[in-house]
């Protein structure tokens, strides 16, 4: 017996079965729901160097209906961000999340205030994402971006460190300089420059001293600075000497110990500095 006449019947039966068991629609909101971990970068007009934080966690939850999501992020530096009803769209495997919400931030628990914020994000996976919060009313416009991985050393360590600078000559100590600054600039290519801001008094005042230093990560995560042979200029004065120092793993503290000899001065100036960002 030929089976040809039975094929249409089989096809109809398969179509009927499919109509009874429709393919479940995948909602974009459910695809981006999850926990995202990485580092954050905070940019604002009052600082040329972004502030960074490692070990950040952000949560995305699909809301009822599966069309929108809620985004929750608590920064150990900037406060709590809450966005609800954020829209999710998809194109070529990349999801876009946009919405608005509130952030609560302040210098202390007693001084916290609520501000409007907007969210824009792109998500490919929990390993490939960018979430950006904009808070226009804070610090002349604050933008915080959360992305995967660990913050690069060029951003973690770079910045201005403020603290106390002590000087001595042949064991004779001078008055400490409070609110002294040193600027550390770590480039993406690994080149590191330390600028010792102008210090001294009267005829003994030196202009800014800029020194190329080596930067080495230690086993405990801290970084060691070194310049074994300084030969640079402070204004019109040639400065020679050496320095060594350490930077905390999170870039929060800097210590420097230097021996500096300005021009033809027969004696060395010993410099000790400890500061924080």
Note down, in words, how this protein is organized:
The protein has 3 helices and 17 strands. It has 277 residues and is mainly β. The strands form 2 sheets. Strands 1-2-3-4-5-6-7-8 form an 8-stranded antiparallel β-barrel. A hairpin with a 2-residue loop joins strand 9 (159-169) and strand 10. The longest helix has 14 residues, at 7-20. The mean pLDDT is 90.
Notable traits:
eight-stranded antiparallel beta barrel, mainly beta, 58% strand, 277 residues, 3 helices, eight-stranded antiparallel barrel
Question: Biggest sheet: strands, sense, closure?
Answer: 8 strands, antiparallel, barrel
DSSP summary, beta strand count: 17
Overall pLDDT metric: 90
Strand order in the largest sheet = 1-2-3-4-5-6-7-8
Tell me the fraction of residues in β-strands, as a range: over 45%
N→C terminal distance: 89 Å
In DSSP terms (H or I, runs of 4 or more residues), the helix count works out at 3
Helix/strand-derived category reads mainly beta
> How helix-rich are the residues, as a percent range?
under 10%
Compressed to H and E, one letter per element, the order equals: HHEEEEEEEEHEEEEEEEEE
Gyration radius, in Å: 29 Å
- The parts where pLDDT drops under 50 for at least 5 residues are none
Oligomer state of the chains in this structure: single chain
Shape: elongated
């Amino acid at each position: 017996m030929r089976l040809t006449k039975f094929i249409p019947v089989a096809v109809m039966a398969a179509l009927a079965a499919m109509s009874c068991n429709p393919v479940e629609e995948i909602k974009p909101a459910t695809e981006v729901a999850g926990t995202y971990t990485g580092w954050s970068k905070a940019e604002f007009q009052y600082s040329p160097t972004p502030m960074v934080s490692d070990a950040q966690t952000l949560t995305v939850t699909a809301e009822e209906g599966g069309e929108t999501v809620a985004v929750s992020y608590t920064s150990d530096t900037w406060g709590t961000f809450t966005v609800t009803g954020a829209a999710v769209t998809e194109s070529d495997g990349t999801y876009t999340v946009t919405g608005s919400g509130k952030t609560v931030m302040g210098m202390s628990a007693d001084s916290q205030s609520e501000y409007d914020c907007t969210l824009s994000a792109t998500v490919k996976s929990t390993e490939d994402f960018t979430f950006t919060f904009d808070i226009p009313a804070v610090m002349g416009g604050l933008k915080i971006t959360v992305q995967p991985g660990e913050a690069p050393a060029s951003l973690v360590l770079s910045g201005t460190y403020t603290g106390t600078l002590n000087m001595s000559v042949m064991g004779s100590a001078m008055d400490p300089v409070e609110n002294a600054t040193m600027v550390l600039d770590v480039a993406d290519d690994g080149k590191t420059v330390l600028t010792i801001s102008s210090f001294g008094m009267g005829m003994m005042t030196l202009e800014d001293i800029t020194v190329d230093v080596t930067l080495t990560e230690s086993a405990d995560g801290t970084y060691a600075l070194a310049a074994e042979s300084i030969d640079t200029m402070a204004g019109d004065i040639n400065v020679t000497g050496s320095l060594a120092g350490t930077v905390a793993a999170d870039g929060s503290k800097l210590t420097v110990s230097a021996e500096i000899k300005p021009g033809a001065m027969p004696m060395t100036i010993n410099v000790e500095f400890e500061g924080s960002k």
